[in-house]
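Quick note —
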Amino acid sequence: HRSMPEGPEVCYAGPSFGFTLSAKFEMEKQSKKNEKLGNVSGNVSFALSWGVVKAACPKVSFRQRAQVLAMNRAALFLCLPDSVGLAEVKYCSDQDHVLFEFNRPLRVSAYIRRKNCTELRRTGHLV
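Predicted structure written out below.
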């Protein structure tokens, strides 16, 4: 498994299972050793629209370990409504997709694809 792509910002977005999700990842500079091991960290800002539920989570810190992007749980608690539970986020390097796995209000997985950040910003889809 490879690390997330390098760059000042990398964006992913897409509709999936009745909701729309967009995310902007900002990576922190890593040592070459950490990059090879897939150990990267940074911040992610994401927006979710799921029926009547709307949420925006700006600058949530994360650390990548293999495929898993471990999010700052305290920050998620503050920005997500009680009705939404984010179980796990994974980076799928083979497809260059990000997988958000929710466990509330129902168990559902959303794959979002890499997109142009400038285009997402212009259409108002970024936090």
